[in-house]
Design brief:
The structure holds two protein chains of two kinds. Chain A is α/β, with parallel strands linked by helices. Chain A folds into two domains: about 1-135 and about 345-370, SRP54, nucleotide-binding domain (Four Helix Bundle (Hemerythrin (Met), subunit A), Up-down Bundle); about 150-340, 3-Layer(aba) Sandwich (Rossmann fold), CATH 3.40.50.300. Chain A contains 13 helices and eight strands. Chain A has helices at about 1-15, 20-30, 35-70, 75-90, 95-110, 115-135, 160-175, 190-200, 215-230, 245-260, 280-295, 310-320, 340-369, and strands spanning about 150-155, 180, 205, 235, 270-275, 295-300, 325, 335. In chain A, helix 7 runs parallel beside helix 8 (about 190-200), helix 10 (about 245-260) packs across helix 11 (about 280-295) and helix 11 crosses helix 12. The longest helix of chain A has about 35 residues, at about 35-70. In chain A, about 45% of the residues are buried. The longest helix of chain B has 23 residues, at about 410-430. Chain B is about 55% helix and about 10% strand. Chain B has helices at about 5-15, 25-40, 45-60, 70-85, 115-130, 145-155, 170-185, 200-215, 230-240, 260-265, 290-295, 300-310, 315-325, 330-345, 345-355, 370-380, 385-390, 395-405, 410-430; strands spanning about 100-110, 135-140, 160, 185-190, 215-225, 245-250, 270-275, 285. Chain B contains 19 helices and eight strands. The chains are: A alpha/beta, B alpha/beta. At the A-B interface, helix 4, helix 5, helix 8 and helix 11 of A face helix 2, helix 6 and helix 9 of B.
């Protein structure tokens, strides 16, 4: 079973890592580490934060699945209904859930599976399959190494576009890039100032015009300025817009066209910011924004407040857009690159372990005989 | 769009049952599955759905669904009634104190729309309740949040009280109340910073502000697109603060808004307002029965009628009716009619509210920018007053002149004239026959 082998390998690697922040700090305390080691430590600390942030969604999910398995012993319609509920309660998209349970029903019938414990492995397998089915678009950010990288941020109102830009600007400034910001949200009251505050905090230039001016004009200026000043990355903020407002969505494609006038291959990355607490509507958002701006990646914001995040599966399955970053808090460095494999692995870690012990037990039984 | 209304969902089940003569208990079970799926798809919390479906099932089995000739319609009717009563039956007004000042506190997650809603509420209170509101900038954490509130205040001409972002929210609240008293402002709306319901420190700060300000209304602002988590959010805010009302925002999006049902059923607190636009006048009273239709994907005729009533001048309407009766309706009347339609807001919004509109293929893709109406109006405006009264006078050379004047093609002008004539004919039939014409929605074929 290829998937399981890969997970198991991954698991081993992770187990070797220090398990807690304290353990890592102890390691630092001996005062005798090289720069390499320090960097490694720093990396560990980041992934620790990431792990912690996602731990909740994963724990909840596993608890639910385990409870389900112990409550329903036989595979019947009640069991499938309960399974649907577990998945839906994790905000996995509706269609994806239905697709998944439908396949499981068939599978159970085909293999004549009657006990839920026998289905456990199949559930994990199917979910991983669903995540991987729709192509493997890279979850790395596209960076134009020799020249300006233009990143366009889009999304509905209140998802955290401006905040995410602040965090991204911080991240790439830290990595030694020259970053600039374009204040393209000329509509919402105070949005330009909000971006300016982030710019001041991180110490990067913000290109802006007055509130109410044409966002496309701001972008045109910003891209030109970024080119002239030799910036590496330009993050373009846009006003939040609901995906069913045709005129506002058309404005986005105009913005995109204007950017392309200055840098033909731009934008190198179009990031859609999604609020992790959003339900089924997240799919509608992803679909609509993909149509007008060809979204290349997703930032899942506010993931720290919620025990969900299942929509990641649905978006990948139904639209093939990878999640590139997740927002896990309100601090400057709380935006983390998203490792899909790690995440999916995390969801099922315990379940894989259990099926391991089950296998071992079966083998022991055989040996006994 | 992936969303199907409950009506369509039940249709396939109905087709299977049709012709069987009698509906069995297992048929009802099948229908209940569709009800369940429709609600889950609308983001209603799964626990709420479970309870709800059980209730509906009992009622369905006990009532005449099984003997009814149209069991599908019966089920929809029961579901809609139950949904409506679960969401509180009727609209509830905002709490206003007898003794000024009335204090309103806005709370919620980040990005729910607290600041915008605070502004909308201020405008609403001034317009509809004759209040003198004060907006208080209590969000000291998010960059430029104070700027945002100040800009909003300027837009609607409501004073904003702020002490910058270095003063604790508790102190801001105290000072704001004093300020309101001095200035004789009778309504104080306190904006607070967005916070996660699991952030204890910030949640306690809210509690402190509440203790100081003793608000008459604690308004929880919730994004209508929120998924299954809506329950947890509402529950934790309610536990700590004992909220008194809820505003659902961003309902102008295409979300079903099942969160409304979840929130109502876990907190038992009324949803009072809905946010329906980015503009400052985009705040409307919440109507449970309309929300029920929306959750079920069944359109919202009542809102259209209300919008029409809000925007259409009654005298003009009467005059128009008379003209229709004696068929002296002219192109000029047609022109003003179109102006009225335009004041009702974007056409595509209106269309979306029509029942069954989601069934029309390609409608979601269609763009009504209002340009079509502009074009027709341009054509009519290029006619002389005499021509508008007597369109039969329009000969080829007059039409050519109009085409030049309006910048439209001759075909378009001919099409318009033909449509106008057809319309007149139709009206004649309607008014001379029964009084059918009085109800503009009569022939539309409602789903039940």
């Amino acid at each position: 079973m290829g998937i399981f082998d890969r997970f198991k390998r991954k698991k081993k690697i992770q187990e070797e890592k220090p398990a807690s922040l304290e353990a890592q700090t102890d390691k630092l305390d001996d005062g005798l580490i090289s720069i390499d080691e320090f960097e490694e430590w720093e990396q560990d600390q980041l992934s620790y934060k990431f792990e912690q942030g996602l731990k909740k969604s994963r724990d909840k999910f596993q608890q639910d699945i385990n409870a389900l398995m112990s409550r329903y012993r036989t595979v019947d319609e009640d069991f499938f209904e309960a399974l649907e509920e577990v998945l839906i309660s994790a905000d996995v998209g509706f269609n994806t859930v239905m697709e998944l349970t439908e396949e499981l029903r068939k599978e159970a019938q085909l293999k004549n599976i009657t006990e839920t414990s026998e289905l456990r492995e199949t559930i994990v397998e199917k979910m991983v399959e669903i995540y991987e089915r729709n192509g493997d678009a890279s979850d790395e950010m596209t960076i134009n190494e020799d020249g300006l990288t233009v990143v366009l941020m889009v999304g509905v109102n209140g998802v955290g576009k401006t905040t995410s830009i602040g965090k991204l600007a911080h991240k790439y400034t830290q990595e030694g890039k020259k970053v600039m910001l374009a204040a393209g949200d000329t509509f919402r009251a105070g949005a330009i100032n909000q971006l300016q505050v982030w710019g001041d905090r991180v110490g990067v230039d913000v290109i802006k015009q007055a509130e109410g001016s044409d966002p496309a004009a701001v972008m045109y200026d910003a891209v030109n300025a970024a080119k002239k000043r030799g910036a590496d990355i330009l993050f373009c903020d846009t006003a939040g817009r609901l995906q069913n407002k045709g005129n506002l969505m058309n404005e986005l494609s105009k913005i995109k066209k204007v950017i392309q006038k200055v840098v033909p291959e731009a934008p190198h990355e179009v990031l859609l910011v999604l609020d992790a607490t959003t339900g089924q509507n997240a799919l509608s958002q992803a679909k609509a924004f993909k149509e007008v701006t060809d979204v290349s990646g997703i930032i899942l914001s506010k993931l720290d407040g919620t025990a969900k995040g299942g929509i990641v599966l649905a978006i990948k399955n139904e639209l093939g857009i990878p999640v590139k970053f997740v927002g896990l808090g309100e601090q400057l460095d709380d935006l983390q690159p998203f490792d899909a494999e790690n995440y999916v692995y995390g969801l099922f870690a315990d379940m894989i372990q259990e099926s391991d012990t089950l296998e071992e037990k079966l083998e022991e039984d055989k040996d006994d005989k | 769009m992936a969303f199907e209304g409950l009506g369509e969902r039940l249709q396939s089940t109905m087709d299977r049952i049709k012709g069987k003569g009698k509906v069995t208990e297992s048929d009802v079970k099948l229908m209940m599955r569709e009800v369940r799926l429709a609600l889950l798809e609308a983001d209603v919390n799964f626990k709420v759905v479970k309870q709800f479906v059980n209730d509906v099932k009992e009622r369905a089995l006990g009532s005449d669904v099984m003997t009814s000739l149209t069991p599908g319609q019966q089920v929809i009717k029961i579901v809609q009634e139950e949904l409506t009563s679960l969401m509180g039956g009727e609209n509830q007004k905002i709490n206003l104190s007898q003794k000024p000042p009335t204090v309103i506190m806005m709370v919620g997650l980040q990005g729910a729309g607290k600041t915008t809603t605070a502004g909308k509420l201020a405008l609403h209170l001034r317009k509809k309740h004759n209040k003198r509101p004060l907006l208080v900038a209590g969000d000291i954490y998010r960059p430029a949040a104070i700027d945002q509130l100040e800009t909003v205040g300027k837009q609607i001409d409501v004073p904003v009280f702020s002490l910058g972002d270095q003063v604790k929210p508790e102190e801001i609240a105290t000072k704001a109340l004093e300020h309101a008293k001095e200035e004789h402002l009778d309504t104080v709306i306190i904006d607070t910073a967005g916070r996660l319901h699991i952030d204890e420190a910030l949640m306690n700060e809210l509690k402190n502000v509440k203790d100081i300000a003793d608000p008459d209304e604690i308004m929880l602002v919730v994004d209508s697109m929120t998924g299954q988590d809506a329950v947890n959010v509402a529950e934790s805010f309610n536990e700590l603060l004992n909220i008194t009302g809820v505003t659902l925002t961003k309902l102008d999006g295409d979300t079903r808004g099942g969160a409304a049902l979840s929130i109502r059923s876990v907190t038992q607190k009324p949803i009072k307002f809905i946010g329906v636009s980015e503009k400052m006048d985009g705040l409307e009273a919440f109507h449970p029965e309309r929300m029920a239709s929306r959750i079920l994907g069944m359109g919202d005729v009542l809102s259209i009628i209300e919008k029409a009533q809000d925007n259409v001048n009654e005298d003009e309407q009467k005059a128009l009716e008379k003209k229709l009766k004696d068929s002296s309706f002219t192109l000029d009347d047609f022109l003003s009619q179109m102006d009225q339609v335009k004041t009702m807001g974007p056409l595509d919004d209106l269309l979306k509210m029509m029942p069954g509109a989601n069934k029309i293929k390609g409608l979601d893709k269609m763009q009504f920018s209002g340009k079509e109406i502009d074009h027709v109006q341009a054509i009519i405006r290029s006619m002389t007053l005499d021509e508008r009264e007597h369109p039969e006078k329009l000969n080829a050379s007059r039409k050519k002149r109009i085409a030049k004047g309006s910048g439209r093609s001759l075909q378009e002008i001919n099409r318009l004239l033909k449509q106008f004539n057809d319309m007149k004919k139709m009206m004649k039939q309607m008014t001379s026959g029964k009084k059918k014409g009085k109800n503009p929605f009569g022939g539309m074929g409602l789903p039940f």
